[in-house]
Amino acid sequence: MTDQLTPVLTETWDVEQGWKLAPYAALGGYAALDTAFAMSPDDVITAVKDSGLRGRGGAGFPTGMKWSFIPQDNPKPKYLVVNADESEPGTCKDIPLMMGNPHVLVEGVILSSYAIRANKAFIYIRGEVVHVIRRVQAAVEEAYAAGHLGTDIHGSGYDLDVVVHAGAGAYICGEETALLEGLEGRRGQPRLRPPFPAVAGLYASPTVINNVESIASVPAIVRHGAAWFASMGTEKSKGHGIFSLSGHVVTPGQYEAPLGITLRELLELAGGIRKGHQLKFWTPGGSSTPLLTAEHLDVPLDFEGVGAVGSMLGTRALQIFDETVCVVRAVLRWTEFYKHESCGKCTPCREGTWWLVQALTRLENGQGTEADLDQLLDQCDNILGRSFCALGDGATSPISSSIAHFRDEYLAHLSHGGCPFDATRSTAWSGQEVTA
Amino acid sequence: MSTPPILDKTLDELREIAARYPEPRSGLLPMLHLVQSVQGRITPEGIEACAAILDISPAEVSGVATFYTMYKRHGVGDYHVGVCTNTLCAVMGGDAIFERLKDHLDIGNDEVAVQRQGDSKTVSLEHIECNAACDFAPVMMVNWEFMDNQTPDSAVQVVEALRSGHEVSSTRGPKLCTWREAERVLAGFPDGRADEGPTAGEASLAGLRIARERGWTAPDPSEAPAKETGQ
Ligand SMILES: Cc1cc2nc3c(=O)[nH]c(=O)nc-3n(C[C@H](O)[C@H](O)[C@H](O)COP(=O)(O)O)c2cc1C
Ligand code: SF4
Ligand code: FES
Q1: What CATH number labels A240-322?
Q2: CATH of domain B79-178
Q3: pTM
Q4: Is residue A130 less than 8 Å (CB to CB) from chain B?
Q5: Contact (CB, 8 A) for B52 and B222
Q6: Partners of residue B92 in chain A, C-beta under 8 Å
Q7: CB contact under 8 A, B185 and A134
């Protein structure tokens, strides 16, 4: 039996100055490089395929398969781009990972670049996290100084340069083709696919784009073997993943566990919902994944399990809300976010998110009739599947799922002539001042 | 705030950024960060300097600068305070913190507070989106450093300490530098402060602490089957 929590990427976060090379190397860091250099790049790809690793950035695409799509007969340079834009509301795992253990990412970048035969890699980090950028910059510098980066790494004949690139504030730049636009010095607006980045990505060259946690999972796979990784998790969702609990739980934070753990199990570890309150709704993987309720406490948190109940595993960003929270207020705020972050390229999303905010604002204020709810759902239908990228689709998830689970609460706003909730009861400090 | 001109040293650094990339235009985002670190905002002069170096039109640079929210047309304070009001933080108290700071500083969103007599530094205020720190909600950022687990009172204390020039440290990062200094790091010029602050904040360690207590680990590699089972 595998233990309930399986720290791998989080393993060094309690180490004194754990972000430095020396403690990382003392725990076996960078040893996987020689293992990999003794293998052919294709064999490294095969190992990652065999491990069953699926993308940790949300969509869960098999990582090894993505790498094998890089056309090696294409004479252009190949590139690896790490997606460290982490901006999906609720998602908060890559940032502490890069802060506490940046070397595991750098080691993963070297192994992954070797596998796809790239000699240049980019780490695109959202700009709003200066200290994380410092730590990754310093780790890259240390790796150069130790001979893990640069020319003829470890005498293997393999060369790699890494550039740490800071973004400038745009959620859409987490979408992989928008990220490439940003990295080419343009407005971050998604590109038409095909061609996919594997064929024509950065500078129209073959490019692999992977999430931070995906790439950081590679060193342990090379070191301990594909079978070791695959011994964790479920049938089709292998390995460990960081689960991020936030909101109304006693001990919010990062919990690294095999895929397939349930929210009930995680809540037990986290001390449960805050005292005197009950779970009302939660996101399994960020605000773009349809809301779930207490009905779903035993759903296995893997790609298939969450998919089977009409939502998505996403980034395992478990935002937990108790009964003090008005779902309409919560959904309105997320919708304002999507409206603000819509890149403006396509009409359904640009105009649609604007209309959604108008309609939800009216409902939150208790204005309108039940027919407005159905109209809201119609508006969602006009966006979902008609948008140019997944941001537009994601914008409809909280709305349609909240109406499905909490239609009565929307109606209560109408009969009450406004929001029936007291927002002060939801805050982190509520209850503390009234210790009667 | 002062707007020093762009001198040769900055032009050299802008070229240095562009040279990091196979195609120079890739340097534009960090180059604009450097412009902000020197001039305190995106100026027409900064736009022209980038355009000249990259051999593109100022209109193209301007189109990029206006797309990204971290680029400021109007100056910000020495300390730019961002309060997360995305749903999770808003519910946990971010809305109350933002209201309190607006009231306390007597400004609206994206404005600079008046520098009172005796204030040695200025602050500006903005509400921001999820900053990937939800397990530390409600979250505030100062010059893009984490100020975790805030309350309205603690937020007021932070801005008052900053205005009076006291040293303030991030709750899991370094001593706060100015906004312009932070922008220089974003341009890719490290400031040597990577080793300040802890490895991780408390919430980040929640699961690891339990695993340590209970002796839970990832499977022992020596017990894993040597060959992949094949799916
Ligand atoms: C609007 C939007 C935002 C996204 N943001 C991120 C992000 O911040 N980080 C990330 O890794 N993937 C993000 N993605 C997913 C990426 O497009 C892409 O699927 C992912 O980086 C692939 O890496 P993976 O296969 O390792 O998961 C986002 C997608 C969309 C549509
Ligand atoms: S769906 Fe929204 S974010 Fe995506 S391309 Fe269209 S306007 Fe831009
Ligand atoms: S919602 Fe505030 S940091 Fe995520």
Answers
A1: 3.10.20.600
A2: 3.40.30.10
A3: 0.97
A4: yes
A5: no
A6: 247, 426-428
A7: yes
Q: Which two tokens stand for residue A320?
A: 């937990």
B27, B199, B229: residue with CB nearest A13: B199
d(CA A134, CA A98): 10
Model ipTM value: 0.96
Establish if A219 touches chain B: CB-CB under 8 angstroms: no
- Looking at domain B8-67, its CATH superfamily turns out to be NADH-quinone oxidoreductase subunit E (1.10.10.1590)
In tens, the pLDDT along A23-78 reads 999 999 999 999 999 999 999 999 999 999 999 999 999 999 999 999 999 999 99
What stretches of A276-326 show up as alpha helix (H) in DSSP? 303-308
At A206, the amino acid letter reads: P
For A327-424, CATH number out of 1.10.1740.10, 1.20.1270.90, 1.20.1440.230, 3.90.1170.50 equals: 1.20.1440.230
Sign of the alpha-carbon torsion through A209, A211, A213, A214 = negative
Nearest CB partner across the interface for B208, out of A7, A90, A91: A7
Domain boundaries, chain B: 8-67, 79-178
d(CA B84, nearest CA chain A) in Å:
11
B8-67 against B79-178: fold identical: no
- Reported as half-sphere exposure (CB side, CA atoms, 13 A), residue A402 has a value of 29
Q: Report strand pairing: B123-128 vs B79-84.
A: parallel
- Torsion on CA atoms A380, A385, A390, A396, rounded to nearest 10: 10
Question: Are the C-beta atoms of B135 and B204 separated by less than 8 Å?
Answer: yes
Q: What is the CATH number of domain A21-230?
A: 3.40.50.11540
Instruction: Give A182-208 pLDDT, tens digit per residue.
Output: 999 999 999 999 999 999 999 999 999
Q: Give the DSSP letter string of A170-202.
A: -GGGGSHHHHHHHHTTS---PPPSSSPHHHH-G
The residue extents of the domains of chain A are 21-230, 240-322, 327-424
Query: What are the tokens at A79?
Result: 């590139």
How many angstroms separate the alpha carbon of residue A124 from the centre of ligand 1? 12
Buried b (16+ CB within 10 A) or exposed e, A339-371: bebbbebbebbbbbbeebbebbeebbebebeee
Residue A58 contacts B where some CB pair is shorter than 8 Å: no
Task: Find chain A residues with C-beta within 8 A of B127's C-beta.
Answer: none
The per-type count for chain B, helices as H runs and strands as E runs, is 9, 5
